Amino acid sequence: MAEVGRAAVRDPGELLPGGFWEAVAVWLEKPQVANKRLCGVRLEARRRAALPWVSPRGRRPNAGPELEEPGAAGRGPRPPEGGPGRGPEESRHRRQQGEGPGEAAAAPLLVEGPGQPDKAGAGEGDFSAWDLDSLWDDFSRSLAGGSHELLAFLTGARAGSQPEAPSELDVVLRTVIPKTSPLCPLAAPRREVVVQDVLNGTVTFLPLEEDDKGNVKVDTNNVYQIRLSGSKEEWFISILIFCPERWHSDGTVYPKPAWLGEELLARLARWSVGSKKSGFKSTLSLISIIEYSKTYRALKEKHKDMVKVWPEVTDPEKFVYEDVAIAAYLLILWEEERAELGLTAKQSFVDLGCGNGLLVHILSAEGHPGRGIDVRRRKIWDVYGPQTCLEEGAITPSDETLFPDVDWVIGNHSDELTPWIPVIAARSHYSCRFFVLPCCFFDFVGKYARRQSRKTQYREYLDFVTEVGLACGFHVQEDCLRIPSTKRVCLIGKRRTYPPTGEAPMEEQRARYINSRRGRPVSPPGREPPRPPPRAAVARAGRPHGRQALAAGAAGLWLSGFRPREKAERVRNCAALPRDFVDQVVLQVGHLLLDAERPCAASAPGGSLKAWNRGGSLSLADVASELDGETLRRLKRECGGLQTLLKNNHQVFEVRSGRVHLRDWREERLRKQRQPEARRRLFSEAFKTRLCWFFSHHPDGCALPSDCCPFAHGPEELRPAQTPRRKQVL
């Protein structure tokens, strides 16, 4: 045994030991956060267990039936009730019959229904998650039979002084999946058993190996442990390796010991006192990560040239690879759904608020019939070709926006349509499912209003959309996508909570819920509920849904007040204001700041003293009070108003903590010199492409000489702006 790293942790607010276990949970469930060479993990099974107790001299004491059955010589220790002695068949039977809260920890994770094997355990290798019981039973026998050194390593602090009875352990079976790259083929996933001993503050990682005959056992070469020790005054986190001389580093799943003792240890120490549970699911928890990795790599290679021809003003790399990742997720989700339901035809779809339409293009190219609808046509639509069906039109939730001919309704950053996606899917037909990726926060009508300060706005909004799905009769699942976005949690409704015969009462429940979001009271129990919208009556009368349901008009609307996005997107960041109006406001605010403080001596770049008026500082409220009413009304119609206009004029102003200052470019020049080379290169490309405001309007001129100022001191110094260079796509 060797300690490869030890870190002292200062606990500022009694966060330990709870924070330590939160940090361990990150390394257990999301190891790619620390090790970028990992694609992720799949938690396959979890159970409660106990280690056999061996005396310091190596003799097994007579501890009664808790550890050894009479007449069971040679069979190893008898585990406690509900522990590793249960075989897979008995465990499965008990799970089908229903277990108590304490026994439920032994059941596999991520199982959607009782008695159904976990997909990851059964589909991503030969070793099933249901074999964890027998595997742990065999491992316990080997520990009691002679592996006393490994047993002492597992028990940690108990190696010197044994307790009267073994403590309860939390045993997790997980699959670690390496990341792929164009130069590295997909490496085989590695399974390991993780043993968490909360009482003694240790978590031990036991890799598994399989011989030629298919027998699986623990590989003692790469066993390591994370340990918390100390007290309220002083805490230490250590990383230990069981056999350092036999440690084999593959560079991905099992890095070098130095990485464990330095990089991982530093992250664990930081997470222990600075991180909290995110409240979100693990990344890609509902699909096979291995299949996702393969599909994503193939789609990225197929559509990477789209970055070169991207005609929109948005960042091509972000939007292309984000839609590639979403498409890969949906393709694997739908592939597993076909296997589960025994389907052969590929699922159809409609993407509401499809935007650039790339997701529709990729899914259609992979053989899924579907279309996208958006209020505004994009330039990129012309690139896809006629095989990609994209429609321009506004979507107003009504009897005319139902889709009885599609299997899935998709809302990918669908803005004001986001809460309506589950409703549209539920009312289209009983077998329709939905996938929604919320971004902006909208209610059924207008912006979403926060109601709970204890949650983040994002978490609260996700809970609201989940609530909508439940009210519409869906079992709603949540997953976290691997996309370059801060809003990457998706919600999925695949199954209904009611049989097809319960459509009529469920429709009444939907109507009551939607009306309640407008402040209308929900009918108390026993009273007649509000009359459902016309679509429910149309459905019960057997008339067709969709565009043939009603001839249009206000009678088919589900809720008054909904407004779709405008066809012409308004620019409200002050960029569309006339140049002369902006120049007038900038000049007026500049003079206000110059008059706020008299000129003072300031050091010139050459070392001499030069009186250059840096001006004073004014609050935004003080600046606004000096502007006329018409100017303020014009600015208030823009997002951000006065503050946005001042920040847009970065050359002249600096806004900090609600106060406005004139920018001193002598200080900015020193900051630029300390920036990375790539940032300095971009700065040099914009050199002398605009006139210097201070040279033209400041009473003392510019504080920098002409050769040092990034702006032109007169029209003769101006040079044309360069077109931004895009990153090269390999």
From TrEMBL:
It catalyses: uridine(44) in tRNA(Ser) + S-adenosyl-L-methionine = 2'-O-methyluridine(44) in tRNA(Ser) + S-adenosyl-L-homocysteine + H(+). It comes from the Eukaryota. Residues 522-535 have a biased composition (Pro residues). Residues 686-716 form the C3H1-type domain. InterPro entries: SAM-dependent_MTases_sf, tRNA_uracil_MeTrfase, Znf_CCCH. A zinc finger (C3H1-type) spans 686-716. It is found in: Cytoplasm. One of its GO terms (molecular function) is zinc ion binding. Residues 55-125, 514-545 are annotated as: Disordered. It holds the Pfam family AdoMet_MTase. It is an enzyme of class 2 (transferase). One of its GO terms (biological process) is tRNA methylation. Keywords: Acetylation, Cytoplasm, Metal-binding, Methyltransferase, S-adenosyl-L-methionine, Transferase, tRNA processing, Zinc, Zinc-finger. Its EC number is 2.1.1.211. One of its GO terms (cellular component) is cytoplasm. Residues 102-115, 536-545 have a biased composition (Low complexity). PANTHER family: TRNA (URACIL-O(2)-)-METHYLTRANSFERASE-RELATED. Adenosyl-L-methionine (AdoMet)-dependent tRNA (uracil-O(2)-)-methyltransferase. Probable adenosyl-L-methionine (AdoMet)-dependent tRNA (uracil-O(2)-)-methyltransferase. Belongs to the TRM44 family. This is tRNA (uracil-O(2)-)-methyltransferase.
